[in-house]
Amino acid sequence: MKTILVTGGTGFIGSHTCVELLNQSYDVVIVDNLCNSHSEVLNRIVSITDKSATFYEVDLLDRVALNTVFTKYQIDAVIHFAGLKAVGESTHIPLSYYHNNLTGTLILLDVMANHGVFDLVFSSSAAVYGDDNSAPYQEHFPLSSTSPYGRTKVMIEQFLQDAFVSDPRWSIALLRYFNPVGAHPSGLIGEDANAISTNLMSFITQVAVGQRKFLSVFGGDYPTADGTGVRDYIHVVDLALGHIKALEKLASQTVKSIDAYNLGTGQGSSVLDVIQTFEKASNRVIPYEIMPRRSGDIAESYANPQKAANELGWKVQFSLETMCRDAWNWQSKNPNGYHS
Ligand code: NAD
Ligand code: UD1
To answer: What range(s) does the NAD(P)-binding domain occupy (predicted)?
Structure first.
């Protein structure tokens, strides 16, 4: 049985990935400092899988504590989710973002190498495609970013490329997520309402439960079919399964590599498409108002996911309707997230 260390494993995407790892009989060790997640997630993971993940409340910046975890377990591979992720916040406190995300990753890489662990799956983002490329995005496109958050992803990808060139024992998958939404179909885990999130689906669900009167649609004059922004929404369970495929690839290859993969559906949906689909899935009306564009937004972003299909054997299963249904199921069962 393989043991996977998951940094940020109590977070939104991390918790769904831990469920899929346990379902596929991996042993899971989580390190998370709980700065944007809740320990109740651990009980919910047990309810879903009948198995438990081992948890350490550890900050990646605490090298001694991290080293202790690696000393206790024979880790086969690491999935590295831990990081700060709010784009707007990153423009206000950029140095904290650089310190947490970059220094945290450097310490993790050093501790991994000291313990002979070289298989790594890293959470990157479609944010690395910046605003100079046009959709559908392909992995070989030039990278840039419009925010300090996005720049931490571009920089970490560069760290990892350099580490790989310097030491061929590294085996790395850079997973570039598009727009993760939805929740586990059980309604037991999802995106915590108390965590910092400025994403569309969080605002839609807040309107649906009456915490907000209406949704502000940022821009109705984009050069898209209905004038609103287009994104590639992906069900968080599909995303979680992409990590298992990436781990399988790292474990199976004899010649080590570093590769980037887009994890998206390849389909763009506008803000109005999402509102209408959510209304159908939840049987609720979502009042909205068209507002000025949000600064830093682009008209459209969607993936070409062919490389992940060809090389990882990964394909999405869930539709936008299922994403909306599961997001609503989670939100209505847990209106205050894990504090409900
Ligand atoms: P999340 O905030 O729910 O999870 C991140 C977890 O990392 C949290 O539990 C937090 O407590 C933990 N963490 C942060 N800094 C830490 C540190 N120094 N030490 C230990 N733990 C720390 O976010 P998420 O949505 O699950 O995202 C996971 C990863 O995927 C992040 O790296 C994020 O940048 C990336 N990503 C997310 C999205 C998205 O829309 N959710 C899109 C693209 C990429
Ligand atoms: C945001 C981040 C991006 C990150 C991505 C996935 C910004 C500027 N970018 O992008 O770096 O990789 O999340 O986590 O924050 N919208 C509304 N009303 C709202 C909220 C959003 O109309 O209240 C619109 C946006 O203008 C956009 C779409 O909905 O057209 C999706 O927005 P969001 O969920 O924030 O994702 P991204 O803009 O793709």
So the answer is: 5-326
Q: In this structure, which amino acid lies at residue 338? A: Y
Cα dihedral 154→155→158→164 (10° resolution): -120
Q: List the structure tokens of 47.
A: 């309810």
- H helices within the chain, ranges in order? 12-23, 40-49, 63-72, 87-92, 94-97, 104-114, 148-166, 200-208, 236-252, 271-282, 306-312, 320-333
pLDDT at 211 over 90: no
Instruction: For residue range 112-131, list pLDDT tens digits in order.
Output: 999 999 999 999 999 999 99
CA-to-CA distance for 32 and 48, rounded, in angstroms? 20
pLDDT tens, position by position, 132-162: 999 999 999 999 999 999 999 999 999 999 9
Euclidean distance between CA atoms 76 and 5, whole angstroms: 8
Q: Which CATH number fits domain 3-181+234-265: 2.40.50.100, 3.40.630.30, 3.40.50.720, 3.40.50.2300?
A: 3.40.50.720
Q: What is the pLDDT of residue 194?
A: 67
Look at ligand 1, atom 35, and give the residue with the nearest C-alpha: 123
Q: What per-residue confidence (pLDDT) applies to 3?
A: 98
Contact 330, 206 (CB under 8 A): no
Annotated catalytic residue within 26, 97, 129, 149? 149
- Vertex 126 angle, CA 125 and 131, to 5°: 130
- Residue boundaries of the structural domains of the chain: 3-181+234-265
Nearest-CA residue for atom 33 of ligand 1: 85
